[in-house]
User: Fold this.
Amino acid sequence: MGRVSPTDSAPGAGASPARDRGAGRDRVGSPWLNAAMHAGFFTVMAASAARLVVRHQLDAHTLASLELAGLVALLYAAGVLLWGTVHRAVLIGWYAALLVCWIALVLMAPSFGFAAIPLLFLALRLLPTPAAVAVAALLAAGAGGAWAMLTDVRDPSVFLVPPAVAGMVTATVVELRRESERRRRTIDDLLRTRGELAASNRRTGVLEERERLAREIHDTVAQGLSSTGMLLRAADRAWESDPERARMLVRRAAEGVRENLAEARAFVQGRGPVPLERDSLEETLAGLCSTLSAETGIDARFHCEEGVGGIPQRVRAALLRIAQGALANVREHSGAGRVVVTLARIGDRVVLDVIDDGAGFDSGAPEPGAGRGHGLASSRARAEELGGELTVESAPGEGTGVSASLPVQEDG
Assistant:
């Protein structure tokens, strides 16, 4: 049995869905409602005391009734003040003592029977529904008996009206309590669902960022290191027979390391490819072909058709990464002697083709680069993210063609 906090069910404080079901029976906790209920109780007690004094002599019976009324009022006030600091079991004991004192008071002075109304609301807020219904019946009987003693009229309404009012009030409050509980459960479900959705979004965001970093690392750092390794091995082989070529290859390897460092910083910062910050897409693709030819001896050529322009930054970045991946496969896997890179604008799409005359591969077998975890799969994912597509055509001994088609929307 937990403590009843001021925000749970105190008559003097706003109620919230209780942490402890047993301690959270109060579902209507507006401060204005609480103040009105307390003011109503003390007003009824004061009016009943005034009626007793006006209509009866100040004899021993009247004074005893007033003293008992004062005790009931003090007991009520004590419960209100202690509500947020005691266990519910103590509160129930307090209410039972208050109820006994009120019944004794009504037997001595029926005028105080009208206090049954605020006591009923108090029972509905404090007690479980079955106990509250039983107390409501007791209060209705007490109020009806007091009314009968005051009027001394044998009218059926004297005995029917109090139970009818108590029944309507009890049914209304119980239904409001149930509706409040349903709403609380709905809100809890919504909050839990929102929390699960937020966690799912966070996990999705982490996975997406991990995939983005993996693609960028593959298309920049991994390919750059692979190229650097090839250059250094070539330099080592030419070191004695052709020192000048060896030094040139070492210089190219050093330049590649610097470029890869710049690319790594760029993708960590969420920027686009570094080459596109300096040059156009056409110039960058032409530079890739020149570098491939200089480093490997492959006849790499770039052709750009007229009318290629107005390509958004995201599309240009994707096309560059796709070209880099395709040329890396040509360098490492194809054994090609010639490769042609073509960039063209067809309607509302831009098309990039990378075609080599290398060894090719069986289209039913794993694609070149797949063993490293990305390769053409990374390029295909880039194209699909932008609503485009990437197709690969190859056969053993017949070379390989990679074609990326991306939709283009004019900037601005």
